[in-house]
Structure formats: C-alpha cells, structure tokens
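Please review this one:
***
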Amino acid sequence: MRAQAASLLGAVDLLGTDASVPLARAYVRGLLLAAGRQEPGDAELLVGELVANAIRYSESGRRPGGMVGLRVYDDGAAVRVEVIDEGSPEPLPRIPAQVDPFSESGRCLWLVRELSSAWGSTQDERSRTVWFEMEPVGSGLDESETARHLDGGPSLGGGQTRKGPVTQ
C-alpha cells in the first residue's frame, strides 16, 4: 500500500470484550461498502478473528476497561486494516503450516496469511498492531507481489508476511 496516498476510511476504539467482535466486523463491512468495495467478506472475517485474538491474548481483554483499536485505510488499490491491542508479554505465535479445520482455535493468523495480499505486525512496550491488506478480487497479483512486506505504512516496522518472519 502506498502510505502517502492511503486515506483513512475510519477509526474506532472498542471495549476489550467479546461483544466488540461483531461490532468490529459490522464497522469494517460498512466502511468498505460505503467506499465502493463490493466484497468485504474476507476483510470482515479477518478483522473478527484479529479482534477476538486481541481480546483473548492481550491486555485489551485481560484488563478491565481494556480497548482494541481499529483503523481502516484505502489507497484505491488495496484496503489496509489495523487491529491495535494493549500488548502482551507473549510474542506473536508462529503460524502452523496446516490447521485443523474442526478446531475452534489456532486459525487466526493462518487465515490472515492465506486470505490477505500482505500482512504484518509491530509491537512496542504499550501495544501490538496486526495489520492486513486486501487487494480486489482478480487483481492479477503473482505470488512474489502478493507476499511482499510493505514498508512505510502508518504502523509498520518488523513483523510477518505471508512468507514468514521479517527482520528489521
């Protein structure tokens, strides 16, 4: 995503409770439809997974009054969604090569890797941001373009892409 040309479609802070998961999904769906994006389903799924993970595994869900931030950008070619939590002492888990399709946990980052055109994460002493980008369906990206790590975005640094860990 070209950070300079990306416009903020919306930003919201949600309580770190399970009730925020469907709110986050509806918020992203509404923003993307209002922006003329015709297929927000995958973005909706991924934001729901990431917000649920933020609530389950970070201080956002552990601490009373914890919050999860959500930011959505559009540069005309790709949509970028960022989920910002209040951090965790645990590192971001590794993505399994395969997941159990019947498991009720352990699929979030695998889904993000499989369904997004790019993704990554950053962490500092107070927060963690996990972001993903969605290219329009049929954008014609080849695997090398799809797996690239994009620098210069609003919350970028190191993190992960579809190809695995990224070092700074």
Q: What stands out?
A: The CA atoms of residues 71 and 82 lie 5 Å apart. Residues 7-166 form a domain with the Heat Shock Protein 90 fold (CATH 3.30.565.10). Residues 138-168 have pLDDT under 50 and may be disordered. The longest strand covers residues 7-15.
